[in-house]
Amino acid sequence: MEMELKKMRVFISTPMSGKTEEEIQEAVRKAEELYLLRTGMRREDVYFYNNFEGGKRALKFEKESAEKVFCNDDGDLMAHQYSVEPKKMSVWYLGIALCNLSDCDEAFFYPEDWIHARGCRIEYDVCRQYDIPCHTAEECFDLYYYYDDCDKNVDLKNLNKDSELADLRDLIAEMHAKGATAEEIRSVVFYSMVIMDADKKHLNWKQAKADFGISALMEKYMQGA
Prior knowledge:
Elements: E1 8-13, H1 21-39, E2 46-50, H2 51-64, E3 68-71, E4 77-80, H3 89-102, E5 106-109, H4 118-129, E6 134-136, H5 151-154, H6 161-177, H7 182-201, H8 205-211, H9 214-222
Parallel strand pairs: 1-2, 1-5, 5-6
Antiparallel strand pairs: 3-4
């Protein structure tokens, strides 16, 4: 009987203050997609935690519980009504996030503006102080290099984002299996970042595809796949 492989546990840290729930969920989705692309791992082999969903689940649990039970100084059980001042809720969420982070194998900070978010910076410092491997979005590259205000150049009508990303996932899997160089894999990861944000940031994805040699890499690694 084969031993079941343990899933990689990855903590996603993303700014939340001033963002809508939809914006946060979109950032988390992109972070997960980018992590899978840069590592070549399959989604079923990774368990993602994030500071937003973890806080939501914990808050729902607390609100549904009328009381919490603690021990007093004498070791006797005592009831304690759950209560957090609204202005301190961010501290409460941070505590939940750090609990989740402690159970992870590594962390990924996304997008590039995470450095301006107080909670993300604290989570990053915890990773560094307690030797939790971590990676950041800025380890990649500046997407705005491919910004283009000409609709004809951006050509979003001919971009099927989901299909393109699916092809890139398959490509990276083959590249890992066939011993591609780190530089080749990095090129595909960078291109995938352009694809993920092409519509919102008006990026010239065709130019990026040419610059990173994606067609040549497809031909080199996907033949016979």
